[in-house]
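Hi everyone,

Forwarding the result from last night's run.
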Amino acid sequence: ASRASMMDGAMWPKDEEGNPVMISLDSSDGGFVKEDTPNIPEGTSWFGFSEEFVEFFKYSIFLGLFCVVVFGPRNAEPFYMVKAMDDFFLSNEFDYGVSFSSLTSIGQFWTFMNATMMPNVFPMYGLNGELISRPAQRFLSDGSNYRIGAVRFRTIRVKDGLCKVPESLYNAPEGWGGDFEDDDEFKPPIDACYPTYNYVEKDYLEPEEGDKFMPMKKYNNESKLCFKYRKDTEQPVYTSTVTGITYSGNGYVIDLGVEEDPDDPGRCGLEDLYDDEGYISPTPGPTAFAPSPDPSIYPTPYPTMKPTGYKTDMESRAQEQLNMLKASEFIDRATRATFVEFTVYNANADMFVLVRLCVETTSSGTVIPTAQVMPARLLTAYRVLAGDGVKGKEYGFMWCEFALYILALGYLVGEVMEWWTVSNLYRKGEHPHGYFYGWNIVDLVNLGLFAAVAVQRMIMIFQISKMVEAGSFTKPEFNVDVQNAVEFGNSVDTMNSINAVICFIKLFKYLDSHPSLGQFTRTISQAQNDLGSFMLVIIIVLTGFGIAFMLAFGHDKSSYMTFSMSFLTLFEGMLGNLDSEMLHNPSILGPILFAWYVIFMIFVVLSMFLSIVDNAYSIVREKMEDSMDEVDPLSRDVGWCLGIPERMVTGILGFFFNLAHRIDRIVPESDDGGAAALEGQDGREGEAKEEEPIEPEVDVDQAMESDEKFVAYTATYKKTIDSLGELKESQRQLNDMLSVINKHLKKVDHPGHS
């Protein structure tokens, strides 16, 4: 019912002119006490409500749907899934104090692969040490996370000859090689140079498509073992969280546990490593120059039986492939990144988790381990549409998401119409700044993100349906589609996270008419020009200090090793996270730069920034001083809506209160068994009655203890009504007292105002 129709209802009393009034209980006279009804603001737009309230109400529904869609299906499961993978692979120590996260050498990486990776990804035993079946080996060692496809081992290499070795080190002096100097395989002190990897120049740095890498060739081994460089993997890029380097999805690829295609002439075959009895052929010693003939420094063969195939011996084949990779020195000086990648699905949480372990070998020789563990709910939306055994609330979330996108589309259409109208007015010179100004820009970004999320959700559902139809989740091969889908799903969460901030900030757009809540946006608007200019000052000063700290301390402190890292570290210092270690730096430059930074950025720049905001806030307060006591249309309508339950209860109680006060006397049951009579109940007042005289009025407290239920219930009800009336009167007196105190305080705070 609308506001007007509710007031026209029978329960609402009206004054002499027919206008609805508010009611309250007053036990003193037993009737209604009239209160003035707040006037409906002029310029109403929708059922008597102001335009500000209507827009606020519609956006509140939109924001509520967004919260239901984004936060409703989420819980702590993504965190626990990431923690499980962290406990299994990243923090799990395979040696005293050494885990994947603390790797410092390639030798430790191979130990990690054998001691941590293989037992957890290709388990042979269950939770209680029992042997498990072949199907159960597709789960991780916890028995809960099902492995989707194979585990991919991938390396990214750079080509030799792209950087030049200095002549003084490339040409060895005569006699330097001793007896080996006349050998054809004699090499100078530095025989090769491998550049730093750069994603922008990947096509120039990486090997060509199909390039064959034969690691045993450097030992003059006649083995035909080779690996093909692939640029058709379609895998997503990977950005290191430590070095900031972005790596492509290309590389030399080995899918552990999967039998290679025998028809591929450049396949990474294993047959050439085996002799007739099924053992790995011994690796011959190198003929290149070496300072020591000790054979222990060369790769040693692993006497493991030749695997019998994926379907019968997956774990054995995977272990054999891993041994072969280590024995053939698959990771060498030209390797810049080594990846171990796989995806698991947890049916308990209905969630996929992508695990990407990366070991970077920088051009300086440093080994840097990083990892990416990314959970995503990919099947939920598809299962809702397919009716695949999901709970009822999931259908509710899907309908809410559909309604959210419909409302977003409506807002987008409204923005397009506004752009068309304002643009025409701007071209005619009838509009000051055109459409692209202020909140309109925020609206476009907000609605653009909603449109992108909606499109990505539809694409993801379509891709998942194709994978389900193709049975991709149960195939033994490495599933690139699932890996890309997880990345795709996380991009949706990223856009929703940005949209969450924008959506809640947009609340102030609809609260701008409120005297108090509108001060936030008006302060920013007042200070925007000064803040924009001052931001340039902050950037200039931070840039100068960022370069200075990088040049002075970038060689021994990771916080300043690059300009971007130095800039971000100093920005954190502005927020209070100061690097006080610089005061104890052995170099005298450390305390000097630190002192300059504190004086300039903390004492001067930040103080100026706060002064600009404080001055703008003071101006806004002065402009709004006269309107602070006025009730704006939004507050009035919101207050009216919030008061609907109170008015309904008051009206109902008022009805019964009026009925109770019509009971003037409570008469006990007559001697002949007749019911108690109510004076004036039949409307025949003053008419002589032939019954016995009515006994005097009974006290309410005594009537409450009567044995007759009607008498006791009526007396109890009257007592309750009287108590409510007294409470209402006390509340009114308290409000009057607070109003007087408030006016007195305003006179004290503003003595110049009347």
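The first helix runs from residue 3 to 7.

Cheers,
N.
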